[in-house]
Amino acid sequence: QVQLVESGGGSVQPGGSLLLSCAASGRYVSDYTMGWYRLIPDVQRELVASITGGGSKWYHHSAKGRFTISGDSSKGTVYLRMNNLKPEDTAVYYCGARAGSGPYFWGEGTQVTVST
To answer: What mean pLDDT is reported for the chain?
Structure first.
């Protein structure tokens, strides 16, 4: 079992930046791949960026060049630095964790709103 707590959402204008943080606790956290997902209204939850315990990173094409995922999976912390935010980035962002093909664990989510 893994418990995840997100923080750092908010409202910004287009072009602004936000830093999302996720604190994970539980057994064998270092065995998990951690990622940031977002739920856009009328669209299913999509993976924005992920990082493995070994440090390998993956980005959604819309996030490349603007977002940076970082952290230490062995310590259970992951961050998402989001720069040059666009209105289409508006969503509820969730921290997720998964070990191999096991179940997903989710945080409660944090709202990100980008508008003028």
So the answer is: 91
Counting residues of the chain whose pLDDT is more than 90, the rounded percentage is 69
Residues whose CB is less than 8 angstroms from the CB of residue 20 and which lie 6 or more positions away in sequence, other chains included: 6, 7, 8, 9, 36, 79, 80, 82, 93, 95, 110, 112
Pairs from 60-66 (Cβ < 8 Å, separation ≥ 24): 62/88, 62/89
- Asked if residues 111 and 20 have their Cβ atoms less than 8 Å apart, the reply is no
Mean pLDDT of 68-87: 89
Output the CA–CA distances (angstroms, integers) from residue 41 to 32, 38, 45, 96, in the order listed.
28, 10, 9, 19
> pLDDT category, 41, cuts 50, 70, 90?
confident
Alpha-carbon span 96 to 88, nearest angstrom: 21
d(CA 68, CA 42): 26
